[in-house]
């Protein structure tokens, strides 16, 4: 029982072939097996959002997804997202707005905000608050985080209009 | 915490799923979106020997219109329901309720069938299905059965599913121009379990409500209907006076289970708050059409 299984998964653009135990969730897999320490583990039961990663273009809770479930999938973590430059404007906005203090929640916040920016380009502040409510910040920096996301939405809207 | 050790299989057919279920019995758990199962595994509230991942069965991830009903496959995700044009047209109640389910990252993984099979009395989908007079389609080695949603949910996390059966989909009567539906819930924080929730499915003749279905979540051990209050509303114009009488009736009819932070009286009151809001909105919307 529970011998390891072989999975083939594309992580941040790189094909990986690894043996994993079925019980290993996605964030333990990327952190411990692949050394990508940007995704964090907070509550480990789907509440805090620190482990948010992308599977096949959609954000998921990394602690509620098994590594074996991602066989054949494309996984993106904050490392890949940062290197690709897709959210450089959002990250700069986080810095400008002091939207992080200890930084533990930040990778999850950025992953979550990325899908909002892409799927809800006209989101209102209320919608941003609702969307981001799935991610906890224990330094209580919510206001600045919402500011940072709203500012990025506005900047992108301006760019589209230009 | 970390999940205990288990095996994992991802079958290619339903027949294979049923074979595995027969072989492992209660030691097996079905894995679809995993948004409840994974949390219970991580908290070690469940200790299965094997997870049967059914997400390869792509036939179960369809939303389609069939004669008189909208069919929603078990593997359809909450996000897919939220963004489906077919759902918006034929079952707008579900489109209205979807954003209340947890958070986006969870809605991207969690499935319709998982929510129905788990039967959480505080969850949105069981409540909506009950309010819509929908049907749950279950399947096992012996074939398919159709169970009315109002019969499917039997007790706390207990459904009519027999050993060896899984939920494969649901059927929802399609809405017509005479229907009006809405969903609302009250939660401490968006995405948290709601303290109280209400789904209204009403059928109108002009401004007269021919039939009003009230589905309630967070009130008892199963998603509830309020038959006495529904009977009182049938055939009435939903004006302020009628709504007040209905609120008194609902208060008398409900016997809510308290949760950790809310007593039965609070829940009873919140249910009437939601009903006042939604029935007033229903009436306003019908009155505007009638002018």
Describe the overall structure.
- The complex is a heterodimer of chains A (162) and B (291).
- By secondary structure, chain A is of the alpha+beta class.
- Chain A has two domains: 5-81, Ubiquitin-like (UB roll); 85-161, DNA polymerase, domain 1, CATH 1.10.150.120.
- Chain A is built from six helices and five strands; from the N terminus they run E-E-H-E-E-E-H-H-H-H-H.
- Chain A has helices spanning 26-33, 78-84, 88-96, 106-119, 125-132, 142-161, and strands spanning 5-11, 14-20, 52-55, 58-61, 74-76.
- Chain A has a five-stranded mixed β-sheet, sandwiched between helices.
- In chain A, strand 1 and strand 2 form a beta hairpin.
- In chain A, helix 3 (88-96) crosses helix 6 and helix 5 packs across helix 6 (142-161).
- The longest helix of chain A has 20 residues, at 142-161.
- Chain A starts with a strand and ends with a helix.
- The mean pLDDT of chain A is 96.
- In chain B, 36% of the residues lie in helices and 26% in strands.
- Chain B has helices spanning 14-24, 37-42, 78-82, 85-90, 92-97, 104-107, 112-118, 124-131, 149-152, 227-233, 240-253, 264-290; strands spanning 7-9, 28-31, 50-53, 63-66, 69-73, 135-140, 143-148, 153-155, 158-159, 166-173, 179-186, 196-205, 208-217, 224-225, 236-237.
- The model of chain B has no long low-confidence stretch (mean pLDDT 97).
- The A-B interface holds A 1-2, 5, 21-23, 25, 28, 44-46, 49, 52, 58-61, 63-66, 68-69, 71, 112, 115-116, 129-131, 133-135 and B 1-8, 10, 31, 34-35, 38-39, 41-43, 49, 51, 53, 55, 79, 99, 102-106, 108-109, 189-191.
